[in-house]
Every structure is written in structure tokens, then in C-alpha cells.
Specification:
Structural class: alpha/beta
Shape: globular
Largest sheet: 6 strands, parallel
Oligomer: single chain
Number of helices: 8
């Protein structure tokens, strides 16, 4: 494992990349890169994926010049066999946004590499089984490394969250009178 300070501010102070987008050539990854490049031009963004040709196209769409492209594209053809390449790419970044799925097949190696690199991790996953697997496999290790790991930070998770909040609110409204009456007895 990479040796680094646990304090996030201190750890991030020597990282040259603010955000690395893993899976940058997919539909969502391209949108994330485009958004970051257009709305947050002061951030230093890097991209990571399997195909150098596709990554170059994403960099071109983002308006990167040759020098930016040379320093900000990381090719990792196989996340399972290329874990050391992922750790190396992530170790210069403050945050990785994981956009490549299905997460149940390739998510755990990306999360593991982020933790080893002590790079904060955010994914756009909507797969509940992956959340459970990631929590069981890496929660303690991420906490011990001081790495923030955030799952389900995407729009496809919002309906379930809103539905749960609405159900909770309605249940509390419906049962608050019966609950308070039971406590009075």
C-alpha cells in the first residue's frame, strides 16, 4: 500500500490532479468529463479508461490541447490485471469518479485501487449488490486509510431515495397519532 498522510488536506496538497474520471469513454463518463471541463475549468481533470483512441477523442471533445492530453490520459486495459496501473494513476489524484460499469464486474478493483492510492472515491452506481459487496470488502480499509468512499452519487439513485423519504413521511404521519396515543397509556 502507498504510504501517505491520513489527513485529507495534507494528502491532497501534493496531488497534481483534482479529479480523475475512470470510465471516461462511456456515455456517463463523457458527460461527466464534459461537465467538469465546461463548468469547472479551474479543476485539473484527468481521464482513465481502456482505449487510448477513445480517451483521446474524449480529451479532444473537452478541448484539451496536446500537452494536457499527454499528461492527463491514463490507459488501463484491464482493471483486474492492471491494478498497479490504476493505483499509479489514482495516486496523483485527489478524487476518482468511477463511471465504468457494470460495477458488480469491475467496481471492486477500482475501489481497491483508490483506497491503495489513498484517493477519495465516488461512483455513479445504482447496483445495490455492489454497495453491499463494497461495504463488506472495503469499509474498514477505507476508514483506516482516511479515504472517503461514496456510492450511488447519480441520478438513477434519486428516485429510490425520494420514494423512501416519501414513504417514511407518510408512515410517520399515519402512525404518529397511534404511536403517541400508545405512549400516553
Amino acid at each position: 500500500m502507498v504510504s501517505a498522510p491520513l489527513d485529507r488536506h495534507e494528502r491532497h496538497s501534493n496531488r497534481s490532479v483534482d479529479i480523475i474520471v475512470h470510465g471516461a469513454t462511456g456515455y456517463t463518463g463523457k458527460r461527466v468529463v464534459r461537465h467538469l471541463a465546461s463548468k469547472h475549468p479551474n479543476l485539473n481533470i484527468a481521464i482513465c479508461g481502456r482505449s487510448s483512441t477513445k480517451l483521446a477523442a474524449v480529451a479532444s471533445e473537452a478541448g484539451w490541447d496536446e500537452a494536457k492530453s499527454q499528461s492527463s490520459i491514463f490507459v488501463v486495459a484491464d482493471v483486474i490485471e492492471g491494478s498497479s496501473e490504476l493505483v499509479s494513476a489514482f495516486s496523483i489524484a485527489k478524487v476518482v469518479i468511477a463511471c465504468a460499469g457494470p460495477y458488480r464486474h469491475c467496481g471492486l478493483p477500482v475501489l481497491r485501487a483508490a483506497i491503495e492510492a489513498r484517493c477519495d472515491y465516488l461512483d455513479l452506481c445504482g447496483e445495490p449488490q455492489f454497495f453491499d459487496d463494497a461495504l463488506l470488502a472495503f469499509d474498514r480499509e477505507a476508514r483506516n486509510a482516511g479515504v472517503l468512499a461514496v456510492h450511488a452519487a447519480a441520478f438513477d439513485c434519486v428516485p429510490a431515495e425520494l420514494g423512501s423519504a416519501l414513504a417514511e413521511r407518510e408512515l410517520l404521519k399515519k402512525h404518529s397519532s397511534t404511536t403517541s396515543g400508545a405512549e400516553d397509556e
